[in-house]
Amino acid sequence: MDYLMIAICSYLLGSINFSIVITRILKGIDIRDVNSHNPGASNATLTLGIKWGVVIFFLDVLKGFIPVFIIRLVFPENDILWFVAGFFALIGHAFPIYYKFKGGKGTSTYMGVVFGAYPLVGLILFVVLVAATTLSDYIVVGTVFLIVPPPIYMIVTGQFHWISIALLSLFAIINLLKHSNNFIALFKGEEKKVFASLKKKT
């Protein structure tokens, strides 16, 4: 019963899409119709500018952080429950019931899940994400450096149950698959650069 209730509550929380809500309020448009068509923090940054992009980024992070952090406090010895909460928050973001199961890629929420499980690792990943994105000028490059390391870390440290590793690894694969068009555009030289896009907003 614990698993089912945690999964349902986390999924419903994850299904709230702040990119769609805030873009509609501020611009009266559907963010899924502009730029990359992805209802996530990266497209919100390209559409609304850096200020609102950062706000939405942190709101999406909280969707992953809050359920994992709470479950970690209540069940400190059961990491499977932590990642059940995190996984279903991620699934909610990627396949939200409120928006006909068409959601974002889950990168920011993924970081929130990791941050909720291990704050220090989450902080390091945030620095890596910012550095990789800044140096490459591509959000998708920063995403790879954010998404790939956590499952590897979990395997190497041996501190987590295999189910926890499997859940996070599964969503890492889902996230990378959702970025397939970005990878194709990157290799073709057609992917939008972060700073060039932001300059157009100023």
From TrEMBL:
Its Enzyme Commission number? 2.3.1.275
Parts of the chain that traverse the membrane = 6-26, 52-74, 80-99, 111-132, 152-177
What pathway, per the record? Lipid metabolism; phospholipid metabolism
- Oligomeric and partner information: Probably interacts with PlsX.
Catalysed reaction equations from the record: an acyl phosphate + sn-glycerol 3-phosphate = a 1-acyl-sn-glycero-3-phosphate + phosphate
Enzyme class name: transferase
Asked if the Swiss-Prot or TrEMBL record annotates the protein with the keyword Transport, the reply is no
Identify this protein by name: Glycerol-3-phosphate acyltransferase
Classify the protein's membrane topology as the record does: Multi-pass membrane protein
Q: What does this protein do?
A: Catalyzes the transfer of an acyl group from acyl-phosphate (acyl-PO(4)) to glycerol-3-phosphate (G3P) to form lysophosphatidic acid (LPA). This enzyme utilizes acyl-phosphate as fatty acyl donor, but not acyl-CoA or acyl-ACP.
What is a GO molecular function of this protein? Answer: acyl-phosphate glycerol-3-phosphate acyltransferase activity
Q: Which is a Gene Ontology cellular component entry for this protein?
A: plasma membrane
Keywords for this protein: Acyltransferase, Cell membrane, Lipid biosynthesis, Lipid metabolism, Membrane, Phospholipid biosynthesis, Phospholipid metabolism, Transferase, Transmembrane, Transmembrane helix
**Taking the first listed entry, what is the main subcellular location of this protein, grouped into a coarse class?**
membrane
Family as reported in the entry's similarity comment: Belongs to the PlsY family.
Offer one example of a GO biological process linked to this entry.
Answer: phospholipid biosynthetic process
* Record localization: Cell membrane
Please, which domain of life does this record's source organism belong to?
Answer: Bacteria
